[in-house]
Specification:
Length: 728
């Protein structure tokens, strides 16, 4: 009878069976892994060695390697250095280095590291080029990378690469809100798991196993880790929709600017009307509050002092609404002698009128009289109009005028220039913007992308306007077609990178724009009442020159009139103004200049009188606490002064004032109609004779031609109000 098998023998047989089974399974898995690896050529469709970063959302793992292939494009190898950026170890910081920042286009997704435009730029220029592009990054991350590396590397040039398909829509949403890390892959935050289960070899399986990758794609169709494009906030469709709406956007911006201008225009009209209505009340208030009041039962000496006080008060009262060099009739002097107004007269008069308005409002606030209530209401309307005029919303105007990303570029410029480096902006188009033949690779019908190019045009113009070189990459890439972009994908081929490198090299050879193509956005040029109410600032030589200098916000106005000695202003010339923002005007008996004053901007202006010329220097060195504004000593012209007349009306009766051209005459005529001055009606078909005391603006024939029948808009145009531009 046979013996029963031992338990140990049975266990051994089961162990062998399990071992054989597991060995077969392992061999099968290895074979499957090899098959899928061979199928994929050992490549994954996207970078899978990301690590989380609290500021940037993600970073690239240092010293990592991977092969990448997608869309039927060739396999490429990627590696990172110890800093987590593509390529070999960076050399020690050296002179004349170029730092390039951007997203996957700068990184060079789909091409070898030596084929990126950064690498080819280094070969072409002989300068060290640092490729700091990282897939998934957007505007916020570009700026953060620049801030991090510019102090470490101290490059002399920073190339900011803006991708129009992504960055337009990612400007206000940082990467940490868009992407998260899932087993080394960067995935959309809405697709990322809230938690994962850790186990041995998880990282290898999810990052290196082609079998696991294939299984995940099969089990989860559309799994985010399989998305080679890592969808941005926008797409070509969004760009088309946005581009089609750019005309509407421009129209809306124009309407908003017109609305702002209309509000200021209406406020100016209300203030002017209120001042006219209040004039009798203020005149009476001047007597009511004892300013130059008469008194009974006083001595001759007291009467004489009261007479002089009343005379001075009347002069100040009238002078407050005049300009430097005007002739104000002194009705208390024998023969109604005219007095040439000085800045001191105006200053005291403005203070007097402000005090009288305040006292008048206080006295009438509880009055039951209908006429008093009407005066109080006019005072209130004037106060509201004044607030509208003097509270321009510069930030809002900037937003209206700015194309997308313009404010961002200014921020980056401030960062780069503060470190002594030069900023260059590259604007990368999407492939279907470059050539309509690119639509075929997506199997989509051709869509007109021309409207979307307006964004690039505006951004390039806004960038160059602040003195930053900008490269629109579209022409270079269009010249490289066909073959500038990968199959079924937006990224550039090696051919596209090469074309971009050549274009960028040429841009770097050219100096940065030194003269802005357009002025930076500023607050509106102050309106006449603002100048009248503003205090005069101290300027060396201004009083002796017979000029008044006032500052409102960033604007300075220099108004030069005739002097007591009868030396008439004859011309004002802008000698130096790098940004071409100075507004200069010459009219009979007066020259004026309005210019912004800011750090780093120097202006030189020559004011000419009949007998002499005086140069005005405005300088504000960067780092200085305040500007220096001063007149130089007069330089004689060798000509004799003009006769001085006691009365402006008498002078007008001698003949019409001489204008430099019809442009100044039209501006002066409009100013006279809106803001006053001396005027005699023509007789027997002769034209009116007029002056335009206090006029200022640009002597621009385009403005007088465009708004020849609209004085309000004409003067807005000469003040460079964006709501009233000259016709192109």
């Amino acid at each position: 009878m046979p013996k029963a098998p031992r338990a140990s023998s049975r266990l051994l047989r089961w162990a062998v069976r399990f071992a054989t089974m597991f060995a077969g399974l392992a061999v099968g898995l290895v074979v499957a892994e090899l098959v899928f690896r061979a199928r994929d050529d050992g490549a994954f469709p996207h970078v899978n060695f990301y690590v989380a970063d609290s500021v940037l959302g993600v970073r690239l793992e240092p010293n990592a390697e991977e092969k990448i292939a997608f869309g039927g494009n060739p396999v490429t190898s990627v590696r990172t250095n110890s800093k987590g950026y593509r390529g070999t170890e960076w050399p020690a910081p050296g002179p004349d280095e170029i730092l390039v920042v951007g997203d996957s286009q700068v990184f060079g997704l789909g091409v070898e590291e030596g084929e990126t435009f950064s690498a080819q730029l280094a070969k072409a220029t002989g300068r060290p080029v640092i490729n700091a592009g990282v897939p998934t990054y957007g505007p916020a991350e570009y700026k953060a990378v620049i801030a991090e590396l510019i102090d470490q590397r101290k490059p002399t040039t920073v190339v900011l690469t803006l991708n129009m398909v992504n960055d337009l829509f990612e400007e206000h949403r940082p990467n940490r809100d868009r992407h998260a890390v899932w087993d080394g892959w960067a995935v959309r935050t809405e697709n990322a798991p809230t938690a994962t289960t850790d186990f041995p070899f998880r990282a290898w399986l999810y990052r290196r196993s082609h079998l696991v990758f294939a299984l995940r794609k099969w089990l989860h169709d559309g799994d985010p880790v399989g998305n080679a494009g890592l969808g941005s906030e926008g797409s070509w469709h969004d760009l088309v929709v946005a581009g089609e709406g750019i005309a509407k956007s421009r129209a809306a911006r124009t309407e908003q600017m017109q609305a702002q201008a209309a509000a200021r225009r209406e406020a100016l009209a209300k203030l002017t009307a209120a001042d006219a209505e209040l004039e009798p009340a203020l005149y009476r208030a001047k007597e009511m509050y004892g300013v130059g009041a008469w008194a009974d039962g006083i001595s001759d000496e007291q009467w004489e002092r009261a007479y002089e006080e009343r005379r001075a008060a009347q002069h100040q009262f009238n002078a407050a609404r005049a300009n430097v060099g005007d002739i104000v009739e002194d009705t208390y002097a024998e023969g109604a002698r005219g007095i040439v107004v000085t800045t001191e007269h105006i200053r005291k008069g403005v203070i007097m009128r402000a005090r009288l308005r305040a006292k008048l409002a206080e006295a009438l606030k509880d009055s039951p009289r209908t006429e008093d209530q009407a005066i109080a209401a006019t005072l209130s309307e004037r106060e509201q109009a004044w607030k509208t005029i003097t509270a321009p919303e510069v930030a809002e105007l900037q937003k209206l005028l700015d194309p997308p990303l313009a404010a961002y570029v200014r921020e980056v410029q401030a960062l780069v220039t503060s470190r002594g480096a030069r900023l260059v902006v590259v604007v990368l188009p999407i492939d279907v913007q470059v050539s309509e033949t690119e639509w075929a690779k997506y199997g989509l019908p051709v869509t007109d992308m021309k409207p979307t190019l307006a964004y690039t045009d505006e951004l390039v113009a806004a960038t160059e306007a602040i003195g930053v070189s900008a490269l629109d990459a579209l022409p270079a890439l269009a010249a490289a077609e066909p073959g500038a972009f990968l199959k079924g994908d937006i990224h550039m081929t090696a051919k596209g990178h090469a074309a971009l490198a050549v274009a960028l090299g040429k841009t770097l050879q050219n100096p940065a724009p030194t003269v802005p193509a357009a002025p930076v956005v500023r607050s509106p040029v102050p309106l006449p009442p603002e100048w009248r109410e503003a205090k005069e600032i101290i300027v060396a030589g201004s009083t002796s020159a017979g000029c008044e200098t006032k500052r409102v916000r960033e604007w300075v106005r220099i108004l030069c009139g005739r002097t007591v000695k009868g030396d008439d202003p004859s011309r004002v010339t802008v000698a130096v103004d790098p940004s071409r923002e100075t507004l200069a005007l010459t009219v009979p008996h007066q020259t004026s200049v309005v210019t912004p004053v800011e750090a780093g901007r120097d202006v030189i202006i020559d004011f000419a009188w009949v007998s002499h010329v005086r140069r005005l220097n405005i300088s504000w060195p960067v780092g200085a606490a305040k500007p220096t504004i001063a007149f130089e000593e007069p330089v004689p012209t060798g000509k004799e002064k003009q006769p001085y007349y006691n009365s402006g009306y008498y002078e007008l009766s001698q003949g019409p004032p001489a204008f430099l051209s019809s442009t100044e005459e039209l501006i002066c005529d409009c100013w006279n109609q809106l803001f006053g001055g001396l005027r005699l009606e023509g007789r027997n078909g002769e034209p009116d004779r007029f002056t335009c005391s206090g006029a200022y603006g640009a002597s621009d024939p385009a403005c007088t031609t465009t708004y020849v029948t609209d004085c309000t808009r004409m003067l807005e145009c000469t003040r460079r109000d964006p709501a009233s531009p000259p016709a192109p």
